Amino acid sequence: MTDQPARWTRATVYPDMWTDPAEDPRNSEGVSPDGELATLQEFLTSYRLTLRMKCEGLDPEQLARRSVPPSTMSLLGLLRHLAEVEQDWRNWISDGDPLPKLYGERDADFHGAVGEQAEADAAYAALEREQGLTDAALAEHPDLGERLGKDGIAVRELMVHRIEEYARHCGQADLLRECVDGRVGQ
């Protein structure tokens, strides 16, 4: 006997996928978007959706499970962390004082990720709110070459960094989810 969950997937067409292509909300009909900004936004949207998909169907305790000791990382912690990061990106493009941290000092986003329904609901709400605020702030700057904030970060660099951050955390979410209930796939 082992405590490790059996590996499984909902996909029937390709056994290494999260779900069948016809049911995958990330699949879009038609050609890819025109232009660099639209392409970057589509990749960001896809990674954001991937993270949510990796979390769906789990209860708060499962979301908060730290699957790779001694790491404090959990799926719930990732949701909280990315809300914090979205807010921080707005700090990068602002000339004003930085906004206060959502969850407190370093790693509080992970340490405070406890398996309670209210905490899970709050994490989802915070992530959605912070994504919307960052998207709205950047929508005011459609020129990817424009430099913003005290450090003069280019909008393009920020967009690519956002995609990189979500992509990295989606890879971690793959492993965390597999440890929680055995579900695998891209």
From TrEMBL:
It holds the Pfam family MST. Gene3D superfamilies: dinb family like domain. InterPro entries: DinB/YfiT-like, MST-like. This is DUF664 domain-containing protein. It comes from the Bacteria. It comes from Streptomyces finlayi.
